[in-house]
Write a structure and sequence with these properties.
Length: 115
């Protein structure tokens, strides 16, 4: 039988750190995105500038869309991970209650395990 165990406080702390990293990325990316857009406004409309735009814009738009999605990925991952912690805690509470109901003993009681 495989035993699954989790440190809910440790995992929650890790989730908080990951969420903070996602928020930091989001803030930095917003500033960088604005700078990229502002920089493009300085590109002229002559033949060389038009050739640059024709090659640059499709790539830049794809990359910007991908970078725009990263903060949401962080949020979704953190939300999903927190749901796992919550499910674990709920299952642990339910399991403890079930053991108490069947045995009248506290499953965490070391005396019960001969320790």
């Amino acid at each position: 039988m495989t035993r699954y165990d989790m440190d809910p406080d440790g995992v929650t702390h890790g989730i908080s750190r990951l969420r903070a990293a996602g928020e930091a990325f989001d803030a930095a990316w917003r500033r960088r995105r604005e700078a990229l857009i502002a920089g493009l406004s300085g590109v002229g409309n002559d033949a060389i500038s038009q050739a640059f735009r024709a090659r640059y814009l499709p790539i830049a738009e794809r990359l910007m869309a991908r970078a725009d999605a990263i903060p949401g990925s962080y949020r979704n991952t953190c939300d999903d991970a927190q749901c796992c912690v919550d499910d674990y805690l709920t299952a642990n509470t339910h399991g403890t209650s079930t053991v108490r109901g069947l045995t009248g003993a506290d499953p965490a009681d070391p005396a019960r395990h001969g320790q």
